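Troubleshooting log. The previous structure file for this entry was overwritten by mistake, so regenerating from the original sequence record. Sequence copied from the archived sheet and checked twice against the printout by T.R.
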Amino acid sequence: MRKHYDLAVVGLGIMGSSTLYAAARRGLSVIGLEQSPELPHASGSSHGQTRVIRQAYFEHPDYVPLIQRAYRAWHELEQESGTRVLFQTGGLMMGSPSSAAVSGAIEAAERHHLPYEVWDSATVSARFPAFHLPESEVAVYEEAAGYLLAEGAWSSFLSVARARGAVVQLGSRVTEWDTSADRIRLNANGSVIEADRLVITAGPWIRHLWPSLPVWVERQTPFWLDDAYVAALGDYPIYLHEDPEGQHVYGFPYRAGEGLKIARHHGGVRCTTETVSREVTAKDEEALRAGLGFFPAAKAASVAQSSVCLYTNTPDEHFVVGQLPGSHGRIVVGAGFSGHGFKFASIMGDLLVQQAFTDMPLQELALFSPERLHL
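Regenerated output below.
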């Protein structure tokens, strides 16, 4: 195995695997270093069968051009890998007219001329009878929304990257690097690897490598529900409901062999990768069911399976993507995806590669600049 590469990628979750894929497609010599002995794994933020994708982005309208590019890039991955990962089911953002989920989705759609419809509670119930909204709530319907097969996408990035010559080194934990020479020297389990540029996509382990980054890890517990009623909801859209306290619950259509995946978005316990409890408890289930007044069938359904995953949150819940301070532009970080980054992975990997070989910050990454955090 060679010891010098154009690019090294540390951390091969969905963002790192996408970066590996993008670099290999650009013809770069690239190595990916992953501390886990296997991929995919269930210890971080990239597992769990499905992820939401949507365009009317209530978090901030500036995400919309990126997600539109991401849709195209997901289709390119499907064509190259021969594996379907994107399913467009339509999507509902539900809550009061003034809720962030509703008003933010409308703002993003209006600013970027996206098609959408606003439904009152009676229309929602007529179209999708399992949802029961109070008369004071509405829904924004977006036809382009849907879901991604999480581990299918992750595996596709890795398989295409390897086929294009990328090297994947598992069980390799990077403990330090040296940028004093004209190359970056990485120490991974005692082995030295050299690269011209470095991308760090370490997920919830990012503070092991960048201790001053102001992010925190949050434990999340998605559930898969199953009974005869919810098993008939395979043609439902993806959905997110915001309650009067601002708590979000999101979910997916029923998938045979898996169940109906549903979870809270935020509201989890603060932890670290070392202290997180991997056991799903009755308290976790109670917290979810407390937020299912809008979806009585799910509230009554049995749990078929559950899991623990981790969010890595920034103070403003926008990503951190940019040059590591003091690295002279040779080290780029993608971190703090705050529970809503997966859908952008198809384009984020290529942006990370571009930024690694560009001295000036990329304009399309301005919202995610590390400088906003006053580091």
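The two ends are 37 Å apart (CA to CA). Archived copy saved in two places this time.
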